[in-house]
Amino acid sequence: MDQCNMSMLPKIPGIYQSYLEIKDKYPIGSDLECIDNVRFIKSIEKKKETLFCDADVAMVMLAKGHNVINMRNWLAFDDKEVLTFYAYHKKSGRGSSGGIDYMLKRLKIIYFLVDETIQVNEPTKPNSGYPQGCFIKKQKIPLPGCDQETGPYYRLPDLVVGTTVIFYGKELRITGVDAFTRDFLHTMGVPAKDNEQIPEDPYFEYRKKADLDVSIKTKPNLNRNQPPNGYDSLILRFRGYWDNRDQMEGELHFYEVLYYLTDDTMELVEEIVDETRVTGIRHKMVVRRQRLPTEGPWCLQPGYNVKQDILNVMSTNKNSFYYTMDSQIGDEQKVSYYHCTDLFIGQVLNVYGRSVVLFWCDECTKSFYRNVYRLESFDPIEAPKTMKEIEEEILNQKRVEIILKNYDEVLRKRLIKYGGTDIIFGFLIKMITDDPINQGRNFMLKYYLDDTEFAIYEYRETNSDIDDKTLQFMMDNPKEFSHSNLVTVRSKTREVINNRFQSLDEFQTKYFQDRELVDRDEFRNVLSFDGELNPHDGVVLALKHKRPDPFEPFTDNVLRSSVQDAMRKGRFIHFDGLKNNLRYRKSKSDRVGYIVCSEAIKAMKSNRVPLNEEITSILVNKFTDTENGCTVNFEDMVEFMDYVKNPVDPPSRLARELLFVKPKKVLIRVKEFIDGLRSET
After folding, report:
1. Given this model, what pLDDT does residue 220 score?
2. Structural domain that includes position 523
3. Which of 29, 275, 343, 566 pairs with 437 at a CA distance of 20 to 30 A?
4. Least confident of 57-61, 107-111, 159-163
5. Whole-prediction pTM value?
């Protein structure tokens, strides 16, 4: 087998074997040879390679003003002087699923004038799916059927536009040249043909047909509010804490929260106490600079923000199908992020499940919110104390108690000596409770200096010294109690108003404006007319026109929760028996499911329903139909009470604290009062 045919076989072990020495270096040969220690210039015939420029190439360089005749290539050129040819190569396809027989590779053939070597590169095409870059390394490429070591090799005259060259068994179709190469060849006297049109790649045509290419473009964020001028590079600085000590092994964490106005990103750095540091604090990055979402999901699953779905397009031929994008664009899932308008003292940030409370900001941040958003309130809130601070505070309190204990005894003896034993200190105190009835109660604490004892008395405010029932009895019997005669009191009040004002409307506008309800104390103060009218007259009118609110209003859910809680605590479960008892009792109404109020109360007592009389009365009145002879809809009432079939959340407080809350203020109906004065005219 000759050497030329040997080179046509694939060079794999067992088929091809070369006994020649493997050449890995290509140094430039010497022009001198040594014979008997005498140096002579080598003859051109002994050269293994052409050392001088090609004649045609030398004429081109001479036309460009460079005389390279009889000059060696490595002196006349450098690696930057290259000729570029455009070509393509058809590679076998990936399969027949989309009808693709081949893929087309766009290539660049680079011819180096310095050593007549060739390099083939493939320009990078994004999202192609196969490796790109260097297709054939820089080397001398032998002609088809020839050996790599002996040649002959491809030279410049072999590269012609419109022809096909074979590099190592790969057919490359030359389609054009660049401007420099075209001018170079034209100067050589070998004009290049016009560039040919490169065919389209069937694989990318298939992808365009199936709409599989989703172009990724950077779009401006039009929704983001640009920061005001002069604040682009400003960083807002807050401090916050996350207290999870209610959990097992939980701790109190302090964070430094940074907000960058330039791109609306946030950064969280934890402040850790470290006594080994000079500052005593060590910083740990918790959240790197990024846009912080206001709510989950914190970890986006694949396909969360994909606008379209991929569909399989089937045909009768099972080997012919392709993919396409769904034309029905679904709703885009928007993610909301924190903005500078969401940050303020007391705000609770949801930082990937951590509730971080902001409690402080620096002066630069205050100035920004003051100038841009006209905010003035920047009072810091008190952050929770760490265990170390609590222990130090307790220790300081014990120290103060020891000091004051010794000091108080000396001070007490000195006060008794100069002021006597009758010195009593008084303090007004209030009860700390959630009970609305006891919240308004005031107490007096007295400290007796002589024997260091305390006494607590309830402080009662002064009133009219008369209760509502007594005053109402006096108003109902005007002959026996003339000073409580409503007609006389209204007449006296109207006379005083006529002396001071031109009309009742002027009086109403000055003191009550457009209000329909006013506080009783304010009403009595207005009717006193600086002492001209008897205070008893104001009390009579206030009682007459008082809004009848024995208790604060409550919702149906509060009543239902309280009733079911009482039934649950009383272990009452016989709701079907209660319903049958109500159904079989005598009713004056012909309507099914209704019963007289008195019979309903008797049935509830006979079944031993664990409700007191007040709650029972409220419950019966709720389901009473007064238009049909005071009958009760017992079907709905039992369903309302049944905590087994229709359970609700238990109440937050006791029933008496929810249903029987006395109004904090007694309100007077102004319109009714004015109409009563007009009726006396």
Report:
1. 44
2. 468-544
3. 566
4. 57-61
5. 0.33
